[in-house]
Amino acid sequence: MNTEKRVAVVTGSYKGLGFEIARKLAKLDNIQVIISGRDKAKGLEACEKLAQQGLEVDFLPLDVTDDKSVENFVNALHEQYGRVDILVNNAGVNPAKEAEEGSVLTAKLDTVISTFAVNSVGPLRLCQALIPMMKEHNYGRIVNVSTEMASLNYIPNDYYPLAPSYRLSKIGLNGVACLLGRELKDTNILINNYSPGWMKTDIGGADAPLTAEEGAETAVYLATLPDGGSQGGFFAEMRKFGGPFALPW
Ligand SMILES: NC(=O)c1ccc[n+]([C@@H]2O[C@H](COP(=O)([O-])OP(=O)(O)OC[C@H]3O[C@@H](n4cnc5c(N)ncnc54)[C@H](OP(=O)(O)O)[C@@H]3O)[C@@H](O)[C@H]2O)c1
Hints:
Structural class: alpha/beta
Number of strands: 7
CATH topology: Rossmann fold
Shape: globular
Order of helices and strands: EHEHEHEHEHEHEH
Bound molecules: NADP nicotinamide-adenine-dinucleotide phosphate
Number of domains: 1
Helix content: 40-55%
CATH superfamily: NAD(P)-binding Rossmann-like Domain
CATH class: Alpha Beta
Low-confidence stretches: none
Distance between the termini: 41 Å
Largest sheet: 7 strands, parallel
Radius of gyration: 17 Å
C-alpha cells in the first residue's frame, strides 16, 4: 500500500514515552503512524491497544543497534508505504542504576559503549537510513528524545546524578542534531532535540512528576513543525515554560 498520508516512525514505541508520542501523532489527521521495536508480540499488543481507542497504527520490527534490522525496516517502509516523513528517535536505555554509573572514573567502558550504541549511534543510523527517503518528497521532521542532563552548560552546576554512560550518550545525540542541522540547512528536513522532563516510565521510575503523555507533547510539536521552523535546536519540555523554550547545548 503506497500512501499519500504522511508516514511517522517512532522508535522503541510499544511502551513508555514512545507509545504516547505514537498515540498523539495517530490522533492527528493524515498521519500513518508506525510503532516499532524489538519485540513483535509487544508491538502488536500496542497496535491493538490503540485500535481499541479508534487509532489505526501499524507495527514494524526494529532494533536500532542492528544494521540488518534497520535495512529490513527501510525495505518494509519502501514496499508498504513508499515514503517516510517523520522520525522520532525515542528508543533509549539508561543504565544509571548500576553501581559503576555513580562515578565517571569507574564507569564500565562496556556499558558506556552499549549505551552509546542505542542512544546516539542508533538515531544516527536511522537518520542515515531514512533521510534519503525524506529527500524524495522534500519533507522531513526528525525529533530526537534527549534530556536536559545532556546540556553541557548545565552540567557544572546541576544536581542530577553523574550517570556518565547516559549523559555522554545523550551529549552525543545532541551532537547528531547539531551537525545534521547544519548539513540540512536550506532543506525542508528539520531536525531538533528535546528534553521530555522526568516521567513515570520504566526509565524514569515511579517517583517522577510527569506522565509519559505530558512528556510527549513537545515531541508532537517538533514532529509537526511548519516549513521554515526550527532547525538543529534543543528544546525543553514546553509545558514547563508555557511554549517552545530553547535549552543551551
Ligand atoms: N523517563 C524519563 O524520565 C526520561 C527523561 C528524559 C529522557 N528520556 C528518554 O525518553 C526515551 C524513552 O524512554 P522511556 O522513559 O519511555 O523508557 P522506556 O519505557 O524504558 O522506553 C524505552 C524504549 O526504548 C526501547 N529500546 C531500547 N533499546 C532498543 C533498541 N536497541 N532498539 C529499539 N528499541 C529499543 C525499549 O524497548 P525494549 O522494551 O525492547 O527494551 C523501550 O520501548 C529514551 O530515549 C529516554 O532516554 C526519558
